[in-house]
Automatic annotation (TrEMBL):
Residues 104-155 form the RNA polymerase sigma factor 70 region 4 type domain. GO terms for molecular function: DNA binding; sigma factor activity. One of its GO terms (biological process) is DNA-templated transcription initiation. The keyword Transmembrane does not apply. Residues 18-80 form the RNA polymerase sigma-70 region domain. InterPro entries: RNA_pol_sigma-70-like, RNA_pol_sigma-70_dom, RNA_pol_sigma70_r2, RNA_pol_sigma70_r4_t2, RNA_pol_sigma_r2, RNA_pol_sigma_r3/r4-like, WH-like_DNA-bd_sf. This is RNA polymerase subunit sigma-70. The keyword Transcription applies. Belongs to the sigma-70 factor family. ECF subfamily. Pfam families: Sigma70_r2, Sigma70_r4_2. Keywords: Sigma factor, Transcription, Transcription regulation.
Amino acid sequence: MKNETAKASLVTCITERKEDFYRLAYSYVKNKDDALDIVQESIQKALTSVESVKNPDVIKSWFYKILVRTAIDYLRKQKKLKVMDDETIEFLSRGKEDHYKDTDLHEALDDLPHQYKTIIILRFFEDLKLEEIADITGENINTVKTRLYRGLKLMRIQLTKEDLS
């Protein structure tokens, strides 16, 4: 009975928040197809281990955790497979990626280490509470707060440098 309840909660969560999950995956990879692959892989992982969830109320943060880890794993694999230099990739991919309205902000966010970037995305783009972020990242709430403020400070420094240039 619990397995069916957890599975139903997972399906409901994914259905209701599919755009949020896609947006989060996209924020890591900046590519529609790769983001969809990450979401799909995360769903597969979640469905195979949903019976491990004791409390269906934590399904949302549990799935966010799977999604973040899957996206980071994907990026690690991509680093190992890097064949072309960044300039060549950028030249070849012009016009094929989505573009943000505020590119400076998103570039500053992209330049952050994953530990800061994840927390900022979950807090400001996914509108999650600090407690939920701590659960998703597996970190202490004080660590989450510290990384949030440090990440924002690093972004502010980066944006200020760009303004002065």
